[in-house]
Design brief:
alpha+beta; Phosphorylase Kinase, domain 1; Transferase(Phosphotransferase), domain 1; TATA-Binding Protein; six-stranded antiparallel beta sheet; about 30% helix; EC 2.7.11.1
């Protein structure tokens, strides 16, 4: 199935849809070349024993593997650094990894860890033994009861993503996997967006997704709400589960888009009146009147047999959306500050990052940075507990983000690109040097 391209015209579809699946028709030896042509050892990093090739894409190959220590099955996605740099997809892969390592939900594929060599980046993922949901739909349609069960699991995971400021933007059966218990798992966050990527109008604008599942407002190219387009895609998935075929389908792509834009679809005769009514609310072409996730969770048809999932909602994993100074860094955040998990280092990405600890308040630190920026004639944009500085025509950027470590200390992360790197080193560091926290030596002499 073709992908809608992004604004630059290049395909934004990622290879993760098979990353944790066992249903691929591909097979191969563990010593096959990795994503960048590197020969993979059967014992990768002396931690994983590689098995068969599960699938491959333009810049990655996915293998079944076992953890040598305990025999647990995992999927390892080998991503070619060279190919993603050539395709200018490094930023997208980096964001996908950043998103997945923060999401922990029973119906989302878990990213266990990220490793790297000179030529490849390796994502170690949860292995979904049941394969793609798409493969099951292709054989037969589901009963209304079973369709509702998977839709409930899907909505639970999507609601979790939205509560953490993440919008998937490419939900479809090919990106839904099944585990050994036949429970659903969302994968492939390659087209995802986070709250901070919205423009001044509060909307997203990148054209992306898969044609048959894309919401009408994306086709209108006027900006869209990430949560509302995910709801639409969930509605298309529910229709497919129940009917066994797509609600909007035509051999002529423009004709299909017209049907989507008008919300023209017909339910099969076996669809219950309750489900018909529910689908009409989910597949409402008007995003302002389309049913919301909250309304779905309280809908009578949806709630039949539904059991709320008791998963730990760890607020510390949330993406920063506002100036919330009460948010503390957890162990996962601190690990990400080490070079071993620095995604910019893994991908040799052009954005460089450094950080320091301070006893001063975020307001004091931001104020000092803003004053220095004014002296340099740089543009300033505040964003939550941080600030973005940019030169003329955005040719260089300095981003300062602040997280609270303890009641007394904050961690300041500085990301720079282009000439901004030299500016930070030569100008801005001097302006904040006295704000850096220096631990006092222990009185005991230890």
């Amino acid at each position: 199935m073709s992908e809608i391209t992004n604004e630059s015209g290049s395909s934004m579809s990622s290879d993760t849809s098979t990353a944790a699946s066992s249903s691929s028709s591909h097979s191969g030896a563990a010593t096959a070349a990795g994503g960048g042509g590197e020969e993979l050892s059967p014992n990768l990093f002396k931690k994983y024993e590689l098995g068969r090739l599960l699938g491959c894409g333009a810049f990655a190959k996915v293998y079944h593997a076992r953890v040598i220590r305990n025999g647990q099955s995992v999927a390892i996605k080998a991503i070619s650094k060279q190919r993603i740099q050539m395709g200018k997809l490094a930023a997208n892969i980096k964001q996908e990894i950043s998103i997945m390592r923060r999401l922990r939900h029973p119906h989302i594929v878990t990213l266990h860890e990220v490793l790297a060599t000179k030529t490849n980046v390796y994502c170690v993922l949860e292995f979904a033994k049941g394969g793609e949901l798409f493969a099951k739909i292709a054989k037969y349609r589901f009963s209304e009861e079973l369709s509702r069960k998977y839709f409930q699991q899907l909505i639970s995971a999507v609601d979790y993503c939205h509560s953490h400021g993440v919008f998937h933007r490419d939900l479809k059966p090919e990106n839904l996997l099944l585990d050994e218990n036949w429970d659903l798992k969302i994968t492939d966050f390659g087209l995802s967006a986070v709250t901070g990527q919205t423009r001044q109008d509060g909307l997203l604008h990148t054209l992306c997704g898969t044609p048959a599942y894309v919401a009408p407002e994306i086709l209108a190219k006027k900006g869209y709400d990430g949560a509302k387009i995910d709801v639409w895609s969930c509605g298309v998935i529910l229709y497919v589960l129940n009917a066994g075929y797509l609600p909007f389908n035509d051999t002529n792509l423009m004709a299909m888009y017209r049907k989507i834009y008008k919300g023209e679809f017909r339910c099969p005769k076996w669809t219950s009146p309750e489900l018909r009514q529910f689908l009409s609310r989910v597949l409402d072409p008007n995003p302002s009147t389309r049913i919301t996730i909250h309304e779905i969770l309280n809908d009578q048809w949806f709630r039949k047999g539904y059991k709320d999932i008791n998963y730990p909602i760890d607020k510390q994993f949330e993406f920063k959306e506002s100036g919330d100074e009460s948010r503390f860094l957890n162990a996962f955040d601190l690990i990400s500050y080490s070079t071993g998990a620095d995604l910019s280092v893994l991908f040799d990405y052009h954005v460089k990052s450094e950080m320091f600890v301070s006893e001063k308040s975020p307001a004091t630190i931001i104020g000092r940075v803003e004053a220095a920026a004014e002296e340099e004639g740089m543009g300033v944009t505040k964003k939550g507990m941080g600030v973005r500085l940019h030169g003329q025509n955005w040719k260089y950027v300095i981003m300062v983000e602040i997280n609270r470590l303890t009641e007394e200390l904050v961690v300041v992360e500085v990301k720079t690109s282009g000439f901004g790197r030299d500016l930070w080193r030569d100008k801005f560091k001097l302006a904040v040097n006295d704000l850096v926290y220096v631990p006092q030596p222990s009185l005991s002499g230890h």
